[in-house]
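Title: Comparing notes on inverse folding

I've been comparing how different people in this forum approach sequence design from structure. To keep things fair, I'm posting one structure and asking everyone to reply with a full sequence. Here's the target:
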């Protein structure tokens, strides 16, 4: 009898301890800390079957370059902004960029309104907001931002292009100002006038050499001792604006290095432009027309 009472007491103790333990564990449960949602990136890369990768905002709206923004300044002002609203963003940080984008490629430029317009590889970024809902006379329409996923602004006027991360050629429309400080027209006579020509992705002017032949660099020495004067445009990538014929571009090998070619003309930089956006001093060095800028309709090299 006594032994049975001891067993019963032990069982009661175990059961009691079990419930106390469970109760204690439940009461001391520490809720898992709330997860901090990832910051929504402000600039991202989207992909098109025809255009490849291009920049969009956080809502998927396309961003664009303007060819006349070649000299670290915004040239789309006034009424232009109605159709091409600037992409403003304060306090841009690396964590606001989507996968595949590099923070050092971005900056901001303060516009006349005092706002910070985002730039990418030196190019100010814009949206496209075409007029919609107008009557047959063009009256009564309103500017409406292009919908997410649309890229209808690409190629407009031959001066607006989708902002891509991998261009090897960009198009600039700018005044030619020679090494001699004079303004030149597209025919290399002295005078004012805009010329539409090719640059690299960052807006650094490219040139051709009139003494070259079809896909033949006749300037660069085998030891590259004169390369600093007219550096070859060294790349094997061919990613160009949609208004250009990609088949007219090719790559040649110059003493072991790859040089981009357009319509048979090897492409170069001018050393004294010093990698300054918008500089095109080489068009008059050593004299006008010896080193012309490449243009869309340049005759085929022979």
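Reply #1:
Here's my take.
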């Amino acid at each position: 009898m006594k032994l049975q009472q001891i067993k019963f007491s032990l069982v009661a103790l175990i059961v009691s301890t079990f419930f106390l333990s469970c109760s204690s564990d439940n009461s001391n449960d520490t809720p898992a800390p709330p997860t901090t949602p990832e910051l929504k990136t402000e600039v991202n890369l989207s992909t098109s079957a025809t255009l490849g990768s291009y920049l969009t905002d956080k809502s998927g709206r396309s961003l664009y370059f303007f060819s006349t923004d070649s000299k670290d300044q915004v040239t789309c002002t006034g009424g232009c902004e109605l159709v091409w609203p600037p992409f403003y963003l304060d306090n841009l940080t690396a964590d606001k960029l989507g996968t595949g984008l590099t923070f050092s490629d971005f900056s901001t430029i303060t516009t006349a309104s005092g706002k910070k317009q985002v730039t990418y590889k030196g190019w100010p970024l814009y949206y496209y907001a075409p007029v919609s809902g107008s009557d047959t006379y063009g009256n009564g329409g309103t500017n409406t931002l292009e919908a997410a996923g649309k890229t209808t602004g690409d190629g407009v006027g031959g001066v607006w292009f989708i902002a891509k991360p991998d261009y090897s050629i960009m198009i600039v429309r700018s005044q030619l100002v020679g090494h001699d400080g004079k303004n030149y027209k597209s025919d290399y006579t002295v005078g004012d006038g805009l010329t539409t020509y090719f640059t690299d992705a960052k807006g650094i002017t490219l040139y051709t050499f009139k003494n070259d032949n079809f896909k033949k660099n006749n300037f660069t020495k085998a030891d590259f001792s004169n390369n600093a004067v007219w550096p070859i445009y060294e790349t094997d990538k061919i990613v160009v604006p949609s208004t250009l014929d990609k088949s007219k571009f090719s790559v040649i090998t110059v003493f072991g290095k790859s040089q981009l070619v357009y319509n048979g003309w090897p492409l170069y930089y001018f050393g004294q432009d010093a990698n300054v956006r918008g500089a095109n001093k080489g068009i008059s060095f050593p004299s006008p027309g010896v080193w012309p800028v490449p243009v869309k309709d340049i005759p085929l090299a022979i």
